[in-house]
Amino acid sequence: MKLYDFDGMFDEKLAAYLKKNADKHKESEWEDIIPELYKQFGDTFIKAVGDTPNGFYAKMSDGELVKALSTHLRQGVPVSEYLCNAIERRNAVELLLPLLDGSEEERDYAINLIGADERALDKYFEMLLDKDSPEDLKNRCVDYIKENADSVADRAVENYNRNCEREYMLEIMSRCKVRSDKIFNILLKEFRCDAENLPMHASYLAAYGDERALEYLLDKIDEECITFIEYQELKFAIEALGGEYTKKRDFSNDPYFELIKSGSGDIFVGFKN
Questions:
Q1: pLDDT digits (tens, 9 = 90+) for 37-71
Q2: How many angstroms separate the CA atoms of 159 and 59, rounded?
């Protein structure tokens, strides 16, 4: 398969263009111009290729595009946006799935291109539950799983009950749109019992959107022992659920409040009596 470094070709063209036109635009303007030039280059005929970058990939089948991606990565040839965009325009998820078991680069490109497609959920869960998966990979998997939270709700509850990646499972459950007493009670239990992670569990209740959580959030925010950071997250959760908390609080002895205030001007006016 013939590979072309279209990004390298563009860089050569860009260098010549900048040398000729450097004084015509400010640096901030170039930040907008260069992406537009890159887009235009995709439709520029290249004699050595016999086509434009976009046209070159448009002639390939779905399988050829995915094979081109893998070959680029194996041979160290830069992968252009033109190739990625061509794959995204196709329904090539089934062809991309095997790359999730490939090299780290293949896996990363495949995840970006597959996104939240339901056909990848089983594999995303597999990577999420793999103790050897790095945290950044788990976070990416969770981000896409959350977009399908309702379809995997039972699986999330099951893994939570098995003590498998409980925090990730709570995050997934909190994004469910279909209301469930089972999920609400789990989120509420974690909020009430895990004092060390109070802000996070308050955010899960806010994301879930069940107004029944308001009374518990209001009781907690009224406690004198809460920190400024906990106060902020609790207040956000209350407002997200349509509630309101207007009581003035004094956090002048809170080290986090003083630390944040010292670099934030007057934005905390009102938090102290």
A1: 999 999 999 999 999 999 999 999 999 999 999 99
A2: 45
| pLDDT band at residue 263 under the 50/70/90 scheme | low
**In angstroms, what CA-CA distances link 72 with 4, 60, 94?**
9, 15, 19
List the one residue out of 40, 55, 84, 57 whose CA is nearest residue 2: 57
Q: Alpha carbon 28 to chain centroid distance?
A: 27
- Given this model, what pLDDT does residue 262 score? 66
> What are the residues whose beta carbons fall under 8 Å from the beta carbon of 125, sequence distance 6 or more?
141, 145, 152, 155
Distance CA 26, CA 29 (A): 5
Residue 46's φ and ψ, nearest 5 degrees, are -115, 115
Calculate the alpha carbon distances from 249 to 33, 216, 225, 232, 245 in Å.
49, 18, 11, 11, 11
CB neighbours of residue 116 within 10 Å: 13
Count other Cβ atoms within 10 Å, centred on residue 140: 19
| Cα atoms in the 13 Å half-sphere on the side-chain side of 266 | 0
Would residue 50 be called left, alpha or beta, if left means φ above 0 and alpha means ψ between -120 and 50 degrees? left
Angle at 100 between CA 98 and CA 104, to 5 degrees: 130
End-to-end CA distance of the chain: 71
Q: Which residues have CB under 8 Å from 109's CB, separation 6+? A: 69, 73, 79, 84, 99
Cα 91 to its chain centre, rounded Å, is 22
Q: What's the one-letter identity of residue 177?
A: K
| Residue 268, both tokens | 């905390």
Give the torsion through C-alpha atoms of 143, 148, 153, 158, to 10 deg. Answer: -50
